[in-house]
Amino acid sequence: MRVALVHFLSPLKNANHKGILQKLENAVIKKGYQIDIFNAHTDSSTMRLTGYDYISIIVPSSPLFGAKLPEKFDEVLENCGMLTSKKGCALVVKSGLFSQKFCNTVMRKMEKEGMMIDYFEVINNVDHANYVGKKIG
Asked: Are residues 64 and 12 in contact, defined by beta-carbon separation less than 8 angstroms?
C-alpha cells in the first residue's frame, strides 16, 4: 500500500515535530507499506496524491484557544489531485486546549473533499506518535 503523509509542521524549527514525523514514518514502514512524506508549505505546487491508496494529514493545533487551520490547507486539498473516495486519517499535534475540536475541523474539511476518514487522533508526544503510526493504513 502506498501511503502519503502530508504535514503542515515545521520540523526544521521544532525538534518535537521532527521526532513525530520520524516515528510515524518508521511505524508505517514496519507494517510493510511504502510511505512518502510531503511538506505542505514547500511541496504544495508539485504534490499529486492521486496515486496513493491512503492519505494521512498531520496538522499542529493552535497554541491556545481556537481551531484555525493553516492558510494553505484548503489550497493543498483542492490542488493535489483527485481525493474522492480515498481512505485517510486526520492527525493533530497537541499544543493547545482544544486539540480534539481542531481534529474534528480537520476531519470535516477532508470529508468535504470526498475522503473517507477511518482514523483520527491527537498526538500528545513523540512516543505517542509511534503508537499512532501503527494504526495508519
From this structure: no
59 grid coordinates: 496538522
Alpha-carbon distance of 67 to 61, in angstroms, equals 7
| C-alpha–C-alpha distance, residues 52 and 46, integer Å | 15
Q: Exposed/middle/buried for 103, CB within 10 Å: 0-12, 13-18, 19+?
A: buried
Residues 4-17 have pLDDT tens digits of 999 999 888 888 99
- Full strand arrangement of the beta sheet holding 116-123: 34-39, 2-7, 54-60, 87-93, 116-123
The letter for the amino acid at 70 is: P
Cell of 9: 509542521
The pTM assigned to this predicted structure is 0.90
